Sequence to fold (490 residues):
Amino acid sequence: MTLSDSFSRIFEGLSRARVMCLGDVMLDHFIYGEVSRISPEAPVPVFRVTRDDLMLGGAGNVARNLSALGTASVFVASVGNDAAGDEVGRLLAAETAVTPRLHSLKGRRTTEKSRFVAGVQQLLRADREEVDDLSPPDERAVLDAAEQGFPGCGALALSDYGKGLLTPRVLAEILTRAAQAGIPAVVDPKGRDYRRYRGAFLATPNRAELAEAAGHPVAGDDAIVDAAKKLMQDCGIRNLLVTRSQDGMTLVEEDGTVTHIAAQAREVFDVSGAGDTVVATLCAALAAGGSLVDAARLANLAGGIVVGKIGTATASAAEVKAAALALTGGHANGKVMDRDATAARVRAWQGQGLAVGFTNGCFDLLHPGHVSLLRQARAACDRLVVGLNSDASVKRLKGETRPVQDENARALVLAALADVDAVTLFAEDTPLELISVLKPDLLVKGADYAGKTVVGADIVTESGGRVVLADLEAGFSTTNTVRKLTEGRA
Fold:
């Protein structure tokens, strides 16, 4: 259950990599609430606000995703001289892996997008913005900031939202500088004229954007490849990665090599910012020394992760690594994860409004009692995480002859069960530390704990969760089974 050598090298290099991010930054404002009635004033829903979140959007979300991957970045952008611009600066300062180089524009509004979300459904988006190209002095200021930040960067992310920062002059100079330095420039494009991106190492249009820019049909694999090659030739872009929603991605390289990358099956809740995640992952992987094909495969996995979350989300290195393990045939379709990846998955589920349950044990020789416990636990929640004692932990608890099956075998058996959504190992004697990290909504133990202190119960209940005691199937015990086998051999 290991990653391929090429993926392993990328993950090892993410924390040493550095990426420059240049593009249109915006403030994403998420207003969450509930809709339970229609207004008496007009035939519109009444939206009752329950909470607000402010996040970095646009190029800022690329920086957030780089931070989530553990990759440092230099962030160059312009903001208005207003409250939204101040908030962008504050949010960037909170990202410790980001070195911000913001240029303030007098008399200009910072782009702000407000999204109203009820449950998992986005009801409305309201934009506040001014869209004008930078003046020549502002162009020079942005280019100077980029020039100062280039040393040590292994990739350049250009996030074009058409808000005026990436003018023809800025693009031409920054792409020339990147090419001279041997730094791959990855462009998230906008508009129909891709000649403005001439000299870019890679552009990442979606299927509709490709059709518009190439003026070519894109129905089917062959048509997409033909359109991509036409666009690359006409506009001087070296490589093209076409994102194709449920059909995955198609990478067309400058030597003519074509790679179709299948999408990973995921629940889609919100596609906001998925393109930012793709660009960030591509740049981080390239800066970490990965090949373009491997970078694209990881970007495909990261994009699949964020569409399963609500809002402008990120994909952590732990989440992408878990997905990569599943892609390479390890860890039981991605259910077996390390602690960080499990915590990220729990947060994502809870962000979707799902109740997450937790139970734990050695699960050495799986028997009907275990199956009953897991079935009852899963029936009481929407997603079930199983904490599994490591081999060393089992040995301390059960004696030198245990476990009968090693931790990898036990994890795989558990992950094969439909009632189990995630499995994570813990090396301690109790799952207390694991529970404190995961903070599940439900803690499940067997009915034999009635009247006893359940480890982690206080953590769960203090967070508004509850403890459930499951009925036991009489007559089943791993210890007794092992004893019978031992006596039989004697």
Remarks:
- Residues 192 and 213 are 4 Å apart (CA to CA).
- The chain has a mean pLDDT of 89.
- The first strand starts at residue 18 and ends at 23.
